[in-house]
Design a protein that fits this description.
The chain has helices at about 55-75, 75-95, 95-105, 110-130, 165-180, 195-205, 220-230, 240-255, 280-285, 310-320, 340-355, 395, 415-420, 435-445, 480-485, and strands spanning about 20-25, 25-30, 35-40, 45-50, 140, 145-155, 155-160, 185-190, 215, 235-240, 260, 270, 300-305, 360-365, 385, 405-410, 425, 430, 450-455, 470, 470-475, 485-495. Helices cover about 35% and strands about 20% of the residues. A hairpin with a 5-residue loop joins strand 5 (about 140) and strand 6 (about 145-155). It is α/β, with parallel strands linked by helices. The N and C termini lie far apart (about 65 Å). The longest helix is centred in the first third of the chain and has 20 residues, at about 110-130. The strands form six sheets. A seven-stranded mixed beta sheet has the order 14-15-16-13-12-18-19, sandwiched between helices. The chain has a six-stranded mixed beta sheet with strand order 9-8-7-10-11-21, sandwiched between helices. The protein has two domains: about 20-265 and about 470-490, Aldehyde Dehydrogenase, Chain A, domain 1, CATH 3.40.605.10; about 270-460, 3-Layer(aba) Sandwich (Aldehyde Dehydrogenase, Chain A, domain 2), CATH 3.40.309. It binds 1,4-dihydronicotinamide adenine dinucleotide and magnesium ion (MG). Magnesium ion binds near residues 39, 192, 340 and 341.
Length: about 500
């Protein structure tokens, strides 16, 4: 979005209006006075303005966090946990407002996506709130006259950067474990979807002391770059593209700070010949996140279909996917909403055009979006499937982050697994078969951080989630994730003989 002040803001009813960015417990504008206009991508209209933060704002937020850290780290962990539980409750009470805000700013459909995300975010606070007592150390048996034990200490000021595709869930996944473990946080919301994240921060701010959580709004390099490079940030936690993940890792290398990266994917789905059934088709639709316009890092966007069922499976898929209703994200009737912004919309359309231009790729259904009619008023794209080309073209290699699925034929199981692993990504994977032995052998052979067999769901708090290869580093969705990503272990060794 441009940084011009829009002449008119048209927020949807029942949505959250921002009060600024959260620094030191207060809502303030940007140091420069500049703002970013936030767009409703389903209607292409401006709905709000948020501060355009840059280095000076980062500095203020880091200073506020630094001031808050000594007291916060000394709060008894279970007391911190209780505050997170109160936040969970307060978020649950405002799920509808949160969901409408998410739908308005992201284009993700209210019924199929946004409401579930708002509930999950509250649940993430509840999950981590209950874990505060588990920040345990160990004793090490070094002999009768030595006491050696470890402590799980907070790292300090955490710098977090989140994307727009599931902003509240991904923001909750930084705030809850970082704060539970006794850290303080400076988090940059995504410039395309900061509103619901600010709302979540507003709720948090009712319960946590000023400066413990600071949430700023700004662009990538200008604001996120300043955060990643700030000398007082002691830990970096990033979710977004692999390209930017590398930039964050370089910044971390400069100061030797630990870094967690949740990056992109091009996740394979392997469908065995015995799975030519409705439940598998429904599972593929879910795994591909068609109802989130496939703007998901875990989207199962490469479908390896056994040759015996290739045509019949695609027919079933077409019937079910084309029955989904695309439309206004805030309309309860919509199954599928809109792409986040014009840049991503154009990118998705280019991939579709590329597929249409290739004589050796067959369009199964979908295609370019309509140029007229109600769907042309927002960034709406059509769920699209291309078939018949191999695993080696752009559409099968690159993260499209849009509803473009490639179907690839296989006959030999080892070959299917080889193709599935032929990617620099390794985030998620899906296997579909009644034969559990085959399914699990494939699950073990696939190079991905998370393999689902016969289901295509989203992450659940408690599971270890994170990518292999260039899909990421570290895990944040679980108790172990909190311990590994947001604490540092100290050993204390005492001579008992004196
Ligand atoms: P992005 O990776 O540029 O943005 C994610 C976050 O990083 C945003 O908050 C952004 O402001 C920040 N950022 C961007 N450049 C930065 C820099 N130099 N230093 C510090 N922070 C920076 O993703 P973008 O541009 O929104 O989407 C582009 C592509 O990235 C998508 O098409 C998709 O392939 C991928 N992506 C993957 C996501 C995932 O969850 N795996 C999420 C979002 C995007
Ligand atoms: Mg937007």
């Amino acid at each position: 979005m441009d940084t011009i002040t829009p002449t008119k803001l048209s927020p949807a009813p029942g949505t959250y209006q921002p009060k600024g960015q959260l620094i030191g417990g207060k809502w303030i504008g940007s140091a420069s006075g500049q703002v970013i206009a936030i767009e409703n991508p389903g209607k292409r209209i401006a709905v709000a303005e948020v501060p355009r933060a840059a280095a000076a704002d980062v500095e203020m937020a880091v200073t506020a966090a630094e001031k808050a850290f000594p007291a916060w780290k000394n709060v008894v962990p279970r007391e911190r946990g209780k505050l997170l539980l109160k936040i969970a409750e307060a978020m649950e009470a405002r799920v509808e407002e949160m969901a409408r805000t998410i739908a308005m700013e992201t284009g993700n459909a209210l019924r199929t996506q946004a409401r579930g995300e708002a509930k999950l975010a509250a649940d993430i606070f509840r999950y981590f709130g209950g874990l505060a007592g588990e920040l345990k150390g160990e004793t090490v048996p070094l002999g009768e006259s030595v006491l050696s034990y470890t402590r799980r200490e907070p790292i300090g000021i955490v710098g977090a950067i989140i994307p727009w595709n599931a902003p509240v869930m991904l923001g909750a996944l930084k705030i809850a474990p970082a704060l539970c473990a006794g850290n303080v946080l400076v988090m940059k919301a995504a410039e395309d979807a900061p509103l619901a994240v600010l709302m979540m921060s507003d709720i948090c701010n009712e319960f946590v002391p000023p400066g413990v959580l600071n949430v700023i709004t700004g662009y990538g390099e200008e604001c996120g770059g300043a955060l990643a490079n700030h000398p007082k940030i002691r830990k970096l936690s990033f979710t977004g593209s692999t390209e930017v993940g590398k930039i964050i890792m370089r910044a971390a290398a400069d100061r030797i700070v630990p870094v967690s990266l949740e990056l992109g994917g091009k996740s394979p789905s392997i469908v065995y010949p015995d799975a030519d059934e409705d439940w598998a088709v429904d599972g593929i639709i879910n795994a591909m996140r068609f109802t989130r316009q496939s703007q998901s890092c875990t989207a199962g966007s490469r479908m390896f279909l056994h040759e015996d069922i290739f045509d019949s499976f695609l027919k079933k898929l077409e019937k079910k996917v084309t029955a989904l209703k695309i439309g206004d994200p805030l309309d309860e009737a919509s199954d599928i909403g809109s792409i986040i912004n014009n840049k991503q919309y154009s990118k998705v359309c280019k991939y579709v055009q590329d597929g249409l231009d290739r004589s050796d790729a067959k369009l199964v259904f979908g295609g370019l979006p309509p140029k007229t009619g109600p769907l042309s008023e927002g960034y709406f794209t059509m769920p699209t499937v291309f078939a018949d080309r191999s695993n080696d073209w752009r559409l099968a290699r690159e993260e499209i982050f849009g509803p473009v699925l490639v179907a690839i034929r296989w006959s030999d199981e080892a070959e299917a697994i080889r193709m599935a692993n032929e990617s620099h990504y390794g985030l998620a994977a899906y296997v579909w078969t009644h034969d559990i032995g085959k399914g699990l052998r494939a699950a073990h052979a696939i190079e991905s951080g998370w393999v689902q067999v016969n289901q295509g769901g989203g992450q659940t708090p408690g599971m270890s989630y994170g990518g292999f290869k260039q899909s990421g580093l570290g895990k944040e969705f679980s108790l172990e994730g909190m311990l590994d990503s947001f604490t540092q272990k100290k050993s204390v060794t005492v001579n008992l003989a004196v």
